[in-house]
Specification:
This is L-2,4-diaminobutyrate decarboxylase. This protein is 41% helix and 12% strand. By secondary structure, the protein is an alpha/beta fold. It has three domains: 69 residues, no CATH class; 268 residues, Type I PLP-dependent aspartate aminotransferase-like (Major domain) (Aspartate Aminotransferase, domain 2); 114 residues, Aspartate Aminotransferase, domain 1, CATH 3.90.1150. The strands form two sheets. A seven-stranded mixed β-sheet has the order 1-7-6-5-4-2-3, with helices on both faces. It has a four-stranded antiparallel β-sheet with strand order 8-9-11-10, covered by helices on one side. Strand 2, helix 8 and strand 3 form a beta-alpha-beta unit. Helix 4 runs antiparallel to helix 11. The structure holds pyridoxal-5'-phosphate.
Length: 490
Amino acid sequence: MNQFKDYFLSQHAESQNSFQRILSETQNLLSEFYRQQPKVFNGKKAEEIEKEIALLTNSSINGESPSLVLKEIMEKVVSNSIHVTHPGSMAHLHCPTLIPAIAAELIIAVLNQSMDSWDQSTAATYLEEKLVKWLAEKLLLADSADGTFTSGGTQSNYMGLLLARDHFCQSQWNWDVKKLGLPAEAHKLRILCSEKAHFTVSKSASQLGLGEQAVVKIKTDAHMRMCVSTLKKEIQRLKSSGYYPMCIAATCGTTDFGSIDALGELTEAASENGMWLHVDAAYGGALVLSKKHCGKLAGINLADSVTIDFHKMFYQPISCGAFFVKNKSSFQYLSYHADYLNPEEEDLDHLVNKSVQTTRRFDALKLYMSLRIVGERDFSCMIDHTIELAKQTALWLKETSGIEVINSEPELNAIVFRFTDEKDADGLNLHIYKKLLYSGEGLIAKTKINGSQYLKFTLLNPQTTMAEVKLAVESLSQSAKEYKQKEEAL
Ligand SMILES: *Cc1c(COP(=O)(O)O)cnc(C)c1O
């Protein structure tokens, strides 16, 4: 007797029925929800949503009907969410998800392969390896290159800096950090990145025992790229002051501006100075699929390590990212052997040897299915569309009076701008940002530049057109007008 038949997928009729029922019901509810064209956000205040969620039952003793639970999830969770598929969703690096990838998520969940040891991912191991190899070739990395899927840019950047640190200590001081911990000189190690680099560079440095103090931020030029001459001077200054500059962390697609550091020049600077070059291409790495813009990645193939996210411009469900190294031997700095998992004497592929995670999702499948079903041509078209849209948007904003655009020639699809106001530009921009958010008509982001409040479009969604952009800006303009009138009246 098996009383749990309807909880797990198997040959039994009970199992088959429950699998079909809950999935088709979920699918119908979601389809119906989007058929009703919800706004990008229903505009409820945080307190209100918090309260609704707090009132949900946490668990049940005897189990509840799927329909009842799904109904509540639709009402309290789905309805109160941000809808990234909406073309008015233009805020963060937060993408709509491809339908083939959603189907892949179902297979991933059913198979539940774990990518740590071969005996938990007998086929998945090879599919991930195959896809990693294909991506490495696309990036024009050397034959010695290798990579692994990760949970995203944060983990990939952490891995890049970890390998940079351990490689430097091993090659310069014959010091094995894995065994011995940090050497006495570790507090003099330095990582150089631009002031627009992602915050996870500093966060990783602090987690790696180097402290945030190890990160030297280099000013950016007019195009928000790391200023190479300043970088070179800083490397020399650090060396002559007794510090050890060990890594340049370049950004290919900064989060705010989408700017791309001069990868070729940075490669040279790194190799001249015996430094590791890590390229954070979490955002910009997707250009590898763009026929028109892939040239912007020139030089990435010479990096010692590379971060790419697929849950941004590759339209994958969270989470999905990858980390690549120029020399696969670099992974030695993070491999460990456990007798029960990946014994040293075994020559099977155990991907745990290349990861900071142990149990790990088979995320490669969703990217793989997307690449096959959507095809490279449409990936290229989608990315190109968003970049063209950003270009048009920036031009249009620049010509609109009362608006100041910081990057009027966006490299990718992010644009930072703000409404001008002599009295209180910060107050005005924050106010109109909130008005738009709670109207649910469109969703944009905000950021601070040199301490001042700015607004931001991240036009990742290939379904977004100028119509949605203009609608959002009109709504912002209207709120700005009202705000200024109130200011006058005071
Ligand atoms: C998004 C992003 C990250 C962080 O990646 P997660 O996937 O959110 O962990 C790091 N660097 C850049 C440039 C990013 O855009």
